[in-house]
Amino acid sequence: MASLTFYGAAQQVTGSCYLIETQHHRILLECGIRQGRDKRVDENEKPFEFDPASIDAVLISHAHLDHSGLVPLLVKRGYNGPVYTSTVTHGLLPIMYRDAASLLRSDYERKNRRLMRAGKKAVEPPYTIEDVERALGQVTGIDYGNRQKIFPDIELRFLDAGHILGSTIVELWLNQGETVRKLVFSGDLGNSCAPLLNDPAVVSEADIVLLESTYGDRNHRPLVDTLEEFNGVIEAAASTGGNILIPAFAVGRTQDLIYWLGLLYHEGRLRGQKVFIDSPMAIKVSNVYERYHHLFNQDDPHFREFMKQGWDNWLPGLTYTQSPEESMALNRVNAGAIIIAGSGMCTGGRIMHHLKHNLWREKTHVVIVGYQAIGTLGRVLVDGATRVKIFGDEIAVKAQIHTLGGFSAHAGQDQLLSWAVNFQAPGPRLCLVHGEPDAMQSLQQRFIQEHQWKAHIPAMGEMISI
Ligand code: ZN
Question: Which of 68, 71, 207, 262 is least crowded, fewest Cβ atoms below 10 Å from its Cβ?
Fold first, then answer.
């Protein structure tokens, strides 16, 4: 008898982590960091709820850190088996992990200077670049659609989830003597209105399905309306002369924004604003995107044009700022700049400096284009705070905050439902994960009302049999 335990992203959005145990093997599905309120105090550095050395294989659905970020710590604490992911994610993880390790190092240097000044002992960061390099050595990339035996009794296949490049839906066949049980994990499912990426692959067979429910309670506005709204913000900023700040993940969201801004440029609607990608990581990620062009949605109406021009020419005047000095110099620009920087939920990174220097100005526009977890600065801004604390300074929020849900990289409620009903009646056992409780309940209601299908909402630490 096999079992599944929910160690993360259970009634919350971040910290994805599920343990599958069969008679012979222990497989960790996802090993992500917790962010915002989900994080609590240093939760990412606590001991794992299982012995890392006892795990036989790790599966990672996509490169976002809330799905993949704790692998280096897992390795440091004794895991030395394989980490399976898609071929593209294999290309993205070195960029993500090395960046995370260098942020961690500077955080701890700062922390230790403070501790030593107070006459206290310095502390060690949870993991270092050496652990990252060791972890990267354990990663194996598998192409979409390639069904692979990872153990004599367990097979694995990744399908395109259309969320970011390289994102996957995970299919796992567990051979238990007489019977084979199939588990499907949706990963983060893409928004089928998003540009460039394919729609999430259709899956029709499973015994148990884990379905993400980030936007389980709402649908996004159509993309055309969202692009108009975005253009409206750009025009408003152009006429009053303020900067536009866009917090964005370096992976996926930043490349989408380059694409959308390029579209507006080609329609003659960008009026001399300069676009800055303030992220040393984003340029490396864009290079990976360039390398895997063949995985994009070839039916996208603008794709051919985009391909012809390439990332570099698609948006003339685009500037990548690399060094901290170049980034700091942007603080002196008072108007006419569109600044895209991480982190996507304003929990750190270069966007914090830009917020500090611009939030108090009435002419500033902040455009929120991605999900903001409870407890993050991004969520506080979306919820209408009038004052916030950044680096210990109190900052008045006079800027206009715009939330453009239609740019989401996640499926909306209808899309989640229509992906799940592809499974053959009477429908597999369905567990909702990766969502806040309200979103999960709302999605659960719709499954019951429209399909008489009762979805389970597992609690943190709950174990179920497969
Ligand atoms: Zn994601």
Answer: 207
